[in-house]
Protein backbone atom coordinates (compact mmCIF):
# COMPACT_ATOMS: atom_id res chain seq x y z
CA UNK A 1 0.00 0.00 0.00
CA UNK A 2 2.69 2.39 1.05
CA UNK A 3 4.73 1.33 -1.89
CA UNK A 4 1.95 1.87 -4.43
CA UNK A 5 1.10 5.30 -2.97
CA UNK A 6 4.73 6.20 -3.30
CA UNK A 7 4.74 4.96 -6.87
CA UNK A 8 1.64 6.95 -7.67
CA UNK A 9 3.16 10.09 -6.21
CA UNK A 10 6.33 9.44 -8.08
CA UNK A 11 4.53 8.93 -11.37
CA UNK A 12 2.46 12.10 -10.99
CA UNK A 13 5.56 14.07 -9.98
CA UNK A 14 7.45 12.73 -12.97
CA UNK A 15 4.66 13.36 -15.44
CA UNK A 16 4.18 16.88 -14.07
CA UNK A 17 7.81 17.46 -14.86
CA UNK A 18 7.67 15.88 -18.27
CA UNK A 19 4.82 18.17 -19.13
CA UNK A 20 6.25 21.32 -17.62
CA UNK A 21 6.03 23.81 -20.45
CA UNK A 22 5.61 27.46 -21.30
CA UNK A 23 2.11 28.73 -21.89
CA UNK A 24 0.64 32.03 -22.99
CA UNK A 25 -2.36 33.34 -21.12
CA UNK A 26 -4.51 36.17 -22.43
CA UNK A 27 -6.35 38.10 -19.74
CA UNK A 28 -9.21 40.48 -20.50
CA UNK A 29 -9.67 43.21 -17.87
CA UNK A 30 -12.74 45.42 -17.88
CA UNK A 31 -12.26 47.78 -14.97
CA UNK A 32 -9.39 49.94 -13.74
CA UNK A 33 -9.23 47.85 -10.61
CA UNK A 34 -8.68 44.74 -12.71
CA UNK A 35 -6.06 46.53 -14.79
CA UNK A 36 -4.30 47.65 -11.63
CA UNK A 37 -4.15 44.05 -10.46
CA UNK A 38 -2.74 42.94 -13.82
CA UNK A 39 -0.14 45.73 -13.83
CA UNK A 40 1.33 44.19 -10.67
CA UNK A 41 2.01 41.00 -12.61
CA UNK A 42 4.66 42.88 -14.58
CA UNK A 43 6.93 42.86 -11.52
CA UNK A 44 7.14 39.09 -11.40
CA UNK A 45 6.15 37.89 -14.84
CA UNK A 46 7.04 38.34 -18.46
CA UNK A 47 4.05 40.28 -19.75
CA UNK A 48 4.41 40.17 -23.52
CA UNK A 49 1.69 42.61 -24.38
CA UNK A 50 -0.64 44.87 -22.48
CA UNK A 51 -3.41 47.15 -23.57
CA UNK A 52 -6.57 48.47 -22.00
CA UNK A 53 -8.50 45.31 -22.77
CA UNK A 54 -5.85 42.58 -22.99
CA UNK A 55 -2.74 41.34 -21.22
CA UNK A 56 -0.61 38.49 -22.59
CA UNK A 57 1.29 36.76 -19.79
CA UNK A 58 3.94 34.06 -20.17
CA UNK A 59 3.63 31.33 -17.54
CA UNK A 60 4.83 27.82 -16.94
CA UNK A 61 2.27 25.05 -16.82
CA UNK A 62 3.10 24.49 -13.14
CA UNK A 63 2.49 28.08 -12.06
CA UNK A 64 -0.42 28.95 -14.32
CA UNK A 65 -3.00 27.46 -11.96
CA UNK A 66 -2.53 29.88 -9.09
CA UNK A 67 -3.04 32.77 -11.48
CA UNK A 68 -6.08 31.18 -13.09
CA UNK A 69 -7.69 30.70 -9.69
CA UNK A 70 -6.78 34.20 -8.60
CA UNK A 71 -8.32 35.60 -11.79
CA UNK A 72 -11.40 33.48 -11.29
CA UNK A 73 -11.82 34.78 -7.75
CA UNK A 74 -11.73 38.31 -9.09
CA UNK A 75 -14.07 37.47 -11.97
CA UNK A 76 -11.52 38.41 -14.65
CA UNK A 77 -11.88 36.50 -17.91
CA UNK A 78 -8.87 34.77 -19.43
CA UNK A 79 -7.91 32.13 -21.96
CA UNK A 80 -4.83 30.00 -22.56
CA UNK A 81 -4.06 30.91 -26.17
CA UNK A 82 -0.95 28.78 -26.48
CA UNK A 83 -0.66 25.71 -24.28
CA UNK A 84 2.83 24.68 -25.36
CA UNK A 85 5.28 27.31 -26.52
CA UNK A 86 8.17 24.88 -26.11
CA UNK A 87 6.62 22.83 -28.89
CA UNK A 88 6.47 25.92 -31.15
CA UNK A 89 10.06 26.83 -30.35
CA UNK A 90 11.21 23.29 -31.05
CA UNK A 91 9.38 23.23 -34.35
CA UNK A 92 10.84 26.58 -35.31
CA UNK A 93 14.40 25.46 -34.61
CA UNK A 94 13.86 22.19 -36.45
CA UNK A 95 12.62 24.09 -39.48
CA UNK A 96 15.48 26.59 -39.33
CA UNK A 97 18.17 23.97 -38.88
CA UNK A 98 17.22 22.55 -42.28
CA UNK A 99 18.02 25.90 -43.89
CA UNK A 100 21.67 25.14 -44.27
CA UNK A 101 22.98 27.16 -47.12
CA UNK A 102 21.13 30.26 -48.02
CA UNK A 103 19.83 33.42 -46.55
CA UNK A 104 16.07 33.02 -46.77
CA UNK A 105 14.00 36.20 -47.12
CA UNK A 106 10.90 34.22 -46.23
CA UNK A 107 12.23 32.85 -42.99
CA UNK A 108 14.38 33.89 -40.03
CA UNK A 109 18.18 33.88 -40.30
CA UNK A 110 21.06 33.73 -37.84
CA UNK A 111 23.37 36.69 -37.25
CA UNK A 112 26.23 35.31 -39.37
CA UNK A 113 23.91 34.86 -42.27
CA UNK A 114 22.36 38.31 -41.73
CA UNK A 115 25.73 40.05 -41.78
CA UNK A 116 26.76 38.14 -44.92
CA UNK A 117 23.56 39.14 -46.67
CA UNK A 118 24.08 42.81 -45.81
CA UNK A 119 27.51 42.62 -47.47
CA UNK A 120 25.94 40.99 -50.52
CA UNK A 121 23.32 43.71 -50.83
CA UNK A 122 26.03 46.35 -50.55
CA UNK A 123 28.14 44.58 -53.16
CA UNK A 124 25.31 44.72 -55.72
CA UNK A 125 24.30 48.26 -54.97
CA UNK A 126 21.51 49.87 -56.98
CA UNK A 127 23.07 51.65 -60.00
CA UNK A 128 23.66 55.32 -59.24
CA UNK A 129 23.82 54.75 -55.48
CA UNK A 130 26.58 54.14 -52.99
CA UNK A 131 26.12 51.27 -50.55
CA UNK A 132 28.22 50.63 -47.49
CA UNK A 133 28.06 48.43 -44.44
CA UNK A 134 29.61 50.10 -41.42
CA UNK A 135 29.97 49.12 -37.79
CA UNK A 136 28.28 51.68 -35.57
CA UNK A 137 29.34 50.09 -32.33
CA UNK A 138 30.27 46.94 -30.50
CA UNK A 139 28.10 45.01 -28.11
CA UNK A 140 29.01 43.82 -24.63
CA UNK A 141 30.07 40.49 -26.06
CA UNK A 142 32.14 42.22 -28.76
CA UNK A 143 29.79 41.66 -31.67
CA UNK A 144 29.66 44.38 -34.29
CA UNK A 145 26.41 46.31 -34.69
CA UNK A 146 26.16 46.70 -38.46
CA UNK A 147 24.35 49.27 -40.54
CA UNK A 148 23.61 49.21 -44.27
CA UNK A 149 23.68 52.65 -45.85
CA UNK A 150 22.19 53.24 -49.27
CA UNK A 151 23.04 56.76 -50.27
CA UNK A 152 23.84 59.18 -53.05
CA UNK A 153 26.89 60.62 -51.32
CA UNK A 154 25.40 64.09 -51.57
CA UNK A 155 25.80 66.29 -48.52
CA UNK A 156 22.74 66.83 -46.30
CA UNK A 157 20.36 64.44 -48.02
CA UNK A 158 17.56 63.45 -45.71
CA UNK A 159 17.92 60.03 -44.11
CA UNK A 160 15.31 57.41 -43.30
CA UNK A 161 16.60 55.52 -40.25
CA UNK A 162 15.20 52.00 -39.82
CA UNK A 163 16.28 49.64 -37.08
CA UNK A 164 15.05 46.36 -35.59
CA UNK A 165 15.57 43.78 -32.88
CA UNK A 166 16.47 46.05 -30.01
CA UNK A 167 14.66 43.36 -28.02
CA UNK A 168 16.30 40.07 -28.87
CA UNK A 169 13.22 37.90 -29.36
CA UNK A 170 11.46 40.23 -31.81
CA UNK A 171 12.68 38.32 -34.87
CA UNK A 172 9.87 39.39 -37.17
CA UNK A 173 11.19 42.96 -37.08
CA UNK A 174 14.58 41.95 -38.50
CA UNK A 175 12.96 39.82 -41.19
CA UNK A 176 10.78 42.81 -42.09
CA UNK A 177 13.83 45.06 -42.57
CA UNK A 178 15.34 42.53 -44.99
CA UNK A 179 12.18 42.50 -47.09
CA UNK A 180 12.39 46.29 -47.20
CA UNK A 181 16.05 46.18 -48.28
CA UNK A 182 15.19 43.69 -50.99
CA UNK A 183 12.24 45.76 -52.15
CA UNK A 184 14.45 48.84 -52.44
CA UNK A 185 17.06 46.86 -54.32
CA UNK A 186 14.75 45.04 -56.72
CA UNK A 187 12.14 47.70 -57.44
CA UNK A 188 14.17 50.82 -58.17
CA UNK A 189 12.98 52.19 -61.53
CA UNK A 190 10.31 49.46 -61.53
CA UNK A 191 7.98 50.70 -58.80
CA UNK A 192 7.58 54.50 -58.80
CA UNK A 193 7.18 54.62 -55.03
CA UNK A 194 10.49 52.83 -54.51
CA UNK A 195 12.11 55.07 -57.09
CA UNK A 196 11.05 58.21 -55.27
CA UNK A 197 11.86 56.80 -51.83
CA UNK A 198 15.42 56.21 -53.05
CA UNK A 199 15.81 59.29 -55.22
CA UNK A 200 14.79 61.53 -52.34
CA UNK A 201 16.28 59.83 -49.28
CA UNK A 202 19.30 57.97 -48.02
CA UNK A 203 18.46 54.82 -46.06
CA UNK A 204 20.29 53.73 -42.91
CA UNK A 205 19.18 50.27 -41.87
CA UNK A 206 20.28 48.36 -38.76
CA UNK A 207 18.58 44.95 -38.86
CA UNK A 208 19.90 43.89 -35.44
CA UNK A 209 20.50 46.53 -32.76
CA UNK A 210 21.09 43.86 -30.11
CA UNK A 211 23.40 41.23 -31.64
CA UNK A 212 24.31 39.54 -28.33
CA UNK A 213 20.69 39.08 -27.43
CA UNK A 214 19.89 37.88 -30.93
CA UNK A 215 22.64 35.24 -30.85
CA UNK A 216 21.40 34.17 -27.44
CA UNK A 217 17.88 33.64 -28.76
CA UNK A 218 19.31 31.43 -31.49
CA UNK A 219 21.19 29.34 -28.92
CA UNK A 220 18.02 28.18 -27.26
CA UNK A 221 16.76 31.04 -25.08
CA UNK A 222 14.31 32.01 -27.77
CA UNK A 223 12.29 34.31 -25.53
CA UNK A 224 15.17 36.50 -24.31
CA UNK A 225 14.42 40.26 -24.47
CA UNK A 226 17.31 42.18 -22.93
CA UNK A 227 20.96 42.48 -23.89
CA UNK A 228 23.51 40.22 -22.26
CA UNK A 229 25.22 42.53 -19.85
CA UNK A 230 26.24 41.21 -16.47
CA UNK A 231 24.78 43.38 -13.75
CA UNK A 232 24.61 43.52 -9.99
CA UNK A 233 22.56 40.31 -9.88
CA UNK A 234 24.62 37.71 -11.73
CA UNK A 235 21.61 35.44 -11.94
CA UNK A 236 19.70 38.10 -13.87
CA UNK A 237 21.87 39.35 -16.72
CA UNK A 238 20.85 41.95 -19.26
CA UNK A 239 19.47 45.42 -19.63
CA UNK A 240 16.33 46.44 -21.52
CA UNK A 241 17.92 48.49 -24.29
CA UNK A 242 14.67 50.36 -24.85
CA UNK A 243 14.64 51.64 -21.27
CA UNK A 244 18.32 52.63 -21.16
CA UNK A 245 18.47 55.72 -23.41
CA UNK A 246 18.99 59.28 -22.26
CA UNK A 247 15.40 60.46 -22.16
CA UNK A 248 13.62 60.65 -18.82
CA UNK A 249 15.86 57.73 -17.83
CA UNK A 250 14.92 56.17 -14.51
CA UNK A 251 11.38 57.56 -14.45
CA UNK A 252 8.14 55.59 -14.91
CA UNK A 253 7.67 52.29 -16.69
CA UNK A 254 11.20 51.00 -16.35
CA UNK A 255 12.46 48.83 -13.55
CA UNK A 256 15.44 49.34 -11.26
CA UNK A 257 15.47 45.59 -10.61
CA UNK A 258 18.00 43.70 -12.74
CA UNK A 259 15.69 40.69 -12.75
CA UNK A 260 12.91 42.61 -14.46
CA UNK A 261 12.38 42.34 -18.21
CA UNK A 262 12.26 46.14 -18.30
CA UNK A 263 15.45 46.72 -16.28
CA UNK A 264 16.68 50.22 -17.18
CA UNK A 265 20.38 49.50 -16.51
CA UNK A 266 22.66 50.74 -13.73
CA UNK A 267 22.92 54.26 -15.16
CA UNK A 268 21.72 56.30 -18.09
CA UNK A 269 22.99 54.93 -21.43
CA UNK A 270 25.13 52.39 -19.55
CA UNK A 271 25.02 49.92 -22.43
CA UNK A 272 27.42 50.05 -25.35
CA UNK A 273 24.54 49.37 -27.75
CA UNK A 274 22.67 52.39 -26.41
CA UNK A 275 25.77 54.56 -26.64
CA UNK A 276 26.39 53.48 -30.24
CA UNK A 277 22.88 54.32 -31.34
CA UNK A 278 22.75 57.63 -29.50
CA UNK A 279 26.04 58.75 -31.01
CA UNK A 280 24.97 58.02 -34.58
CA UNK A 281 21.47 59.39 -34.19
CA UNK A 282 22.84 62.59 -32.71
CA UNK A 283 25.42 63.04 -35.44
CA UNK A 284 22.70 62.78 -38.10
CA UNK A 285 20.30 64.86 -36.03
CA UNK A 286 17.65 66.71 -37.99
CA UNK A 287 18.94 65.19 -41.23
CA UNK A 288 16.88 62.17 -40.21
CA UNK A 289 13.47 62.80 -41.76
CA UNK A 290 11.98 59.86 -39.88
CA UNK A 291 13.47 57.61 -37.21
CA UNK A 292 11.78 54.21 -37.28
CA UNK A 293 12.56 51.56 -34.68
CA UNK A 294 10.64 48.35 -35.25
CA UNK A 295 9.43 46.33 -32.28
CA UNK A 296 7.05 43.40 -31.73
CA UNK A 297 4.17 43.03 -31.27
CA UNK A 298 0.63 44.35 -31.24
CA UNK A 299 -0.25 46.52 -34.29
CA UNK A 300 0.74 49.93 -33.00
CA UNK A 301 2.29 53.01 -34.60
CA UNK A 302 3.76 54.62 -31.48
CA UNK A 303 5.26 58.08 -31.26
CA UNK A 304 6.87 60.04 -28.40
CA UNK A 305 6.62 60.55 -25.58
CA UNK A 306 6.59 57.78 -23.01
CA UNK A 307 7.11 59.74 -19.83
CA UNK A 308 4.86 61.76 -17.56
CA UNK A 309 4.77 65.52 -17.13
CA UNK A 310 6.66 66.34 -13.92
CA UNK A 311 4.06 68.89 -12.84
CA UNK A 312 0.76 67.22 -13.73
CA UNK A 313 1.85 63.56 -13.39
CA UNK A 314 -0.15 62.90 -16.55
CA UNK A 315 1.32 61.86 -19.89
CA UNK A 316 3.63 64.59 -21.15
CA UNK A 317 2.29 66.34 -24.26
CA UNK A 318 4.93 67.66 -26.67
CA UNK A 319 4.36 71.09 -28.25
CA UNK A 320 4.11 69.51 -31.72
CA UNK A 321 1.95 66.59 -30.58
CA UNK A 322 -0.87 67.34 -33.04
CA UNK A 323 1.50 67.37 -36.01
CA UNK A 324 3.27 64.13 -35.10
CA UNK A 325 -0.11 62.49 -34.46
CA UNK A 326 -1.27 63.60 -37.92
CA UNK A 327 1.68 61.71 -39.40
CA UNK A 328 1.08 58.65 -37.21
CA UNK A 329 -2.56 58.66 -38.32
CA UNK A 330 -1.52 58.69 -41.97
CA UNK A 331 0.78 55.71 -41.34
CA UNK A 332 -1.71 53.66 -39.32
CA UNK A 333 -4.60 54.39 -41.71
CA UNK A 334 -2.50 53.25 -44.68
CA UNK A 335 -1.48 50.06 -42.89
CA UNK A 336 -5.06 49.24 -41.97
CA UNK A 337 -6.05 49.32 -45.62
CA UNK A 338 -3.51 46.69 -46.66
CA UNK A 339 -5.09 43.74 -44.81
CA UNK A 340 -8.01 45.34 -42.97
CA UNK A 341 -6.21 45.06 -39.65
CA UNK A 342 -6.66 47.51 -36.77
CA UNK A 343 -3.70 49.67 -35.78
CA UNK A 344 -3.68 51.90 -32.73
CA UNK A 345 -1.56 55.01 -32.96
CA UNK A 346 -0.39 57.78 -30.65
CA UNK A 347 2.14 58.72 -27.96
CA UNK A 348 3.42 55.57 -26.27
CA UNK A 349 2.59 56.94 -22.80
CA UNK A 350 -1.16 56.88 -23.32
CA UNK A 351 -1.39 54.38 -26.17
CA UNK A 352 0.39 51.53 -24.37
CA UNK A 353 1.66 52.59 -20.94
CA UNK A 354 4.02 55.17 -19.43
CA UNK A 355 7.67 54.34 -20.07
CA UNK A 356 11.06 56.01 -20.00
CA UNK A 357 14.50 55.66 -21.58
CA UNK A 358 13.10 54.77 -25.01
CA UNK A 359 15.21 55.43 -28.09
CA UNK A 360 12.50 57.26 -30.06
CA UNK A 361 12.16 59.70 -27.19
CA UNK A 362 15.92 60.21 -27.15
CA UNK A 363 15.99 60.80 -30.91
CA UNK A 364 13.28 63.41 -30.63
CA UNK A 365 14.19 65.16 -27.38
CA UNK A 366 17.97 64.99 -27.51
CA UNK A 367 18.96 64.56 -31.16
CA UNK A 368 16.46 66.92 -32.78
CA UNK A 369 14.63 64.39 -34.98
CA UNK A 370 11.09 65.70 -35.40
CA UNK A 371 9.39 62.48 -36.50
CA UNK A 372 10.23 59.29 -34.64
CA UNK A 373 8.22 56.10 -34.29
CA UNK A 374 8.06 52.60 -32.90
CA UNK A 375 5.85 50.47 -35.12
CA UNK A 376 4.88 47.34 -33.19
CA UNK A 377 4.55 44.74 -35.94
CA UNK A 378 1.78 42.17 -36.32
CA UNK A 379 1.57 38.88 -34.44
CA UNK A 380 0.17 37.32 -31.30
CA UNK A 381 3.51 36.40 -29.83
CA UNK A 382 7.19 36.26 -30.63
CA UNK A 383 7.18 32.83 -32.28
CA UNK A 384 5.42 33.56 -35.53
CA UNK A 385 5.13 31.46 -38.67
CA UNK A 386 7.42 32.61 -41.48
CA UNK A 387 4.32 33.25 -43.57
CA UNK A 388 3.89 36.41 -41.47
CA UNK A 389 7.06 38.00 -42.86
CA UNK A 390 5.64 39.10 -46.21
CA UNK A 391 2.43 40.63 -44.76
CA UNK A 392 4.47 42.35 -42.05
CA UNK A 393 6.66 43.85 -44.76
CA UNK A 394 3.64 45.08 -46.73
CA UNK A 395 2.18 46.73 -43.65
CA UNK A 396 5.36 48.40 -42.49
CA UNK A 397 6.27 49.53 -46.00
CA UNK A 398 2.81 51.08 -46.38
CA UNK A 399 3.26 52.83 -43.02
CA UNK A 400 6.70 54.18 -43.90
CA UNK A 401 5.62 55.46 -47.29
CA UNK A 402 2.44 57.02 -45.94
CA UNK A 403 4.22 58.66 -43.02
CA UNK A 404 6.95 60.11 -45.25
CA UNK A 405 4.20 61.31 -47.60
CA UNK A 406 2.43 62.98 -44.68
CA UNK A 407 5.65 64.58 -43.44
CA UNK A 408 6.28 65.96 -46.93
CA UNK A 409 2.57 66.75 -47.32
CA UNK A 410 2.66 64.86 -50.63
CA UNK A 411 0.92 61.54 -50.03
CA UNK A 412 1.87 58.59 -52.18
CA UNK A 413 -1.71 58.00 -53.23
CA UNK A 414 -1.39 54.77 -55.07
CA UNK A 415 0.79 52.90 -52.64
CA UNK A 416 -2.03 50.70 -51.39
CA UNK A 417 -3.17 49.75 -54.88
CA UNK A 418 0.40 48.91 -55.82
CA UNK A 419 0.85 46.70 -52.80
CA UNK A 420 -2.46 44.95 -53.36
CA UNK A 421 -1.71 44.15 -56.97
CA UNK A 422 1.70 42.60 -56.26
C1 LIG B 1 23.81 30.30 -39.93
O1 LIG B 1 22.97 30.00 -40.99
C2 LIG B 1 23.60 29.52 -42.12
C3 LIG B 1 22.56 29.31 -43.20
O2 LIG B 1 21.94 30.49 -43.55
C4 LIG B 1 24.33 28.22 -41.82
O3 LIG B 1 25.03 27.78 -42.95
C5 LIG B 1 25.29 28.46 -40.67
O4 LIG B 1 25.85 27.23 -40.28
C6 LIG B 1 24.60 29.09 -39.50
N1 LIG B 1 25.62 29.49 -38.55
C7 LIG B 1 25.52 29.24 -37.29
C8 LIG B 1 26.61 29.77 -36.41
O5 LIG B 1 24.58 28.65 -36.83
C1 LIG C 1 24.02 44.57 -21.88
O1 LIG C 1 23.97 45.41 -20.80
C2 LIG C 1 25.15 45.48 -20.03
C3 LIG C 1 24.90 46.37 -18.86
O2 LIG C 1 24.18 45.72 -17.91
C4 LIG C 1 26.30 45.94 -20.85
O3 LIG C 1 27.47 46.01 -20.07
C5 LIG C 1 26.43 45.01 -21.99
O4 LIG C 1 27.43 45.46 -22.81
C6 LIG C 1 25.15 44.90 -22.75
N1 LIG C 1 25.20 43.89 -23.75
C7 LIG C 1 25.21 44.22 -24.99
C8 LIG C 1 25.26 43.10 -25.93
O5 LIG C 1 25.18 45.34 -25.35
ZN1 LIG D 1 10.48 45.56 -28.26
Automatic annotation (TrEMBL):
GO terms for cellular component: extracellular space. It comes from the Eukaryota. Pfam families: Peptidase_M14, Propep_M14. It is found in: Secreted. This is Peptidase M14 domain-containing protein. InterPro entries: CARBOXYPEPT_ZN_1, M14A-like_propep, M14A_act_pep, Peptidase_M14. GO terms for biological process: proteolysis. One of its GO terms (molecular function) is metallocarboxypeptidase activity.
